[in-house]
Amino acid sequence: MAELEPKPFPPGRYPLIVVGSGPGGLQLTYCLRRLGIDHAVLSADDAPGGMFRRWPVFQRMLSWTKPYTGFDRRTREYERYDWNSLLAEDDQHRGVMTEVMDGTSYFPSRPEMERGLALFVERTRLQVRYGCRWETTRQEANGDFVLGTSDGEYRAPVVVFAVGVSQPFRPPIGGLAEVPHYGELRAVETYADRRVFIIGKQNSGFEIASGLLPWARQIILASPSPAKLSVNTHSLVGVRARYVQPYEDSVLAGGVIILDASIEGVKRSGGAYEVSTRNARENVSLVLEVDDVIAATGFTTPLRDLPDLGVRTVGQSGLPVQTPFWESASVPGIYFAGTINQGAQGLMKHGIPSNSGAVQGYRYNARVLARHLAEAHFGLKQRGRAMATDEVIPFLLAEARFGPELWHQRSYLARIVSIDADRGVVDEGISSLAVFVDQRDGPDGAAIALESNGRDDLYPIVYVRHNNVVREHPLPPNPLLDFEREEHRAAIAAALGPLVSPSLSRPRR
Amino acid sequence: MAVGELADTIAGFALFADLTTPQRENVVDVFTEQWFADGEKVLRQGLTGSGLHIVLDGTAAIRIDGVDRATLRAGDYFGEISVLLGEAPTADIVAIGPLRCLVLPSSQVESFLKANPSVMFRILQGEARKVRTTTKWLS
Known about the structure:
The complex is a heterodimer.
Chain A: E1 12-13, E2 17-19, H1 23-34, E3 40-42, H2 97-100, H3 110-123, E4 134-139, E5 145-149, E6 152-156, E7 159-161, E8 167-168, E9 195-199, H4 203-212, E10 218-223, H5 230-233, H6 245-252, E11 256-269, E12 272-279, E13 285-290, E14 292-295, E15 299-300, H7 306-309, E16 313-314, E17 319-320, E18 334-336, H8 359-378, E19 385-387, H9 392-402, H10 404-408, E20 413-420, E21 424-432, H11 433-438, E22 445-451, E23 459-466, E24 469-474, H12 486-505
Parallel strand pairs in A: 1-6, 2-3, 2-7, 7-18, 9-10, 9-14, 10-11
Antiparallel strand pairs in A: 4-5, 5-6, 8-15, 11-12, 12-13, 16-17, 19-21, 20-21, 20-22, 22-23, 23-24
Chain B: H1 3-11, H2 21-30, E1 32-36, E2 41-43, E3 51-64, E4 67-72, E5 77-78, H3 80-85, E6 92-105, H4 106-115, H5 117-138
Antiparallel strand pairs in B: 1-6, 2-6, 3-4, 3-5, 3-6
Helix pairs in contact in B: 1-2
């Protein structure tokens, strides 16, 4: 068969290179193209989709796309309910997932997710050099990074890695190296009538436990501390509702056993395994005999030789330490997109992390990152829109009520307005809340975000910067999540008072 | 860093000196490990929603109205006063060089301390020292 087209992006020098063709890499290349930033995209895979070409193992997503919302599926407002489609600037490219889902669930199947991503690539004509594996990295004296790949050498002063957090991680526990990891689960019927020990009480462990409920004789889930549930933490932290069934089985029927214990070792014994555990609180050890052990012990970031280049990493997942604009904190010019963005923790208010680890969160980071790259490395500064004085308060409240960026990235991304001596109030768009509050010599301005405190309903919060002092002003919650009521207008007017009264009373030119 | 290594690191801290190894592993599991780059703010004066922080390695400055007042090092903890009183911190805490901390959100501090009375007692001793220092300074 004849080759259809030559592969794009042959080896050479580019102004910018993106590595990866999962949702993170795809969203970034889309946003960069829209800004007219010339760049190459390389991927080791043969097709778009990243980890969703294989996982989740039980072939259904945890993130939903809700069909009926009262909003047209081609609008920005709809994005709040559609956690899976990539973002588009043209209406006809929005909400792609709604076209590929069969309607039997509001959680897309894995193949539907993969198809949705491929459809987005096809329609928006994104270009990726597939089958091109990044293997090595070095930096030259002029600052250029040199990527050694399976297709040859690439050079660029700026490189964005969107390579996922998908490399199996096993903690250094004796015997664990021989145990299958999450991704190595066998066909479910082979677990029929067996005793299965799952190490780990995160979503991956509970996903497997849920899938094996109709098969396994007994399921034991174990890790040192109690399982958290997302419905209790009011965040993506903890086991998601769809996987809570094993928990209910454990408390109502005992077919599942959930242990709060550290795993001290795994040993083969005949056809079975012996797992040694120790309870944290009472310091009691317990040895269990089971037929299968599965390590649902998490994933690390496949950064290859980047740590040798000086990229500092953190935690068990080996996430790179990042600035609020997702640049390596230790090697300038190296950036990250996609789920690796969870390494830029933001304000972590009330201990609640951002949603940067998930598509619905990092797709917005990609848009902010593209704009930052354009400004910082290509000299393309976007000029914000000047607003009429009486527009400011209704605009900010509408953003709090409907802005999908604020809903998906609470206390992380914010809608920002600044006060310009000549132009009055200027809409600066969506950006990093951490940058707004920590900026040293910033203009006066305000940022509105949504905040969860892990206990109550979410509420809008306004940060006002005046003479380089930032104060926060939480707005009242509302049971119907309507933040455009009189009490909100009054509260935001009071918050903005010292900031806007003098400048807004000045006539605009 | 793996749970075992972190549990060994905090074994040297006065705050956790009375805990058994499994209890220390539990601490590491309940707290979140966070990194901060040089100059990054860890706590922000006047902004609510912070937690109890324990320095694993690196140093941080206590900065009030832009002036550095003291330095925090490995084993030191901060943020406990705003957690206990439910108020925003009265100082910025700023990383001086790379800083690594264990963090517990304020909503979990009460249950953690009640479940670990020896840690509660150590914190109480720490607060007593602060009161003594302040009293001496005032007299």
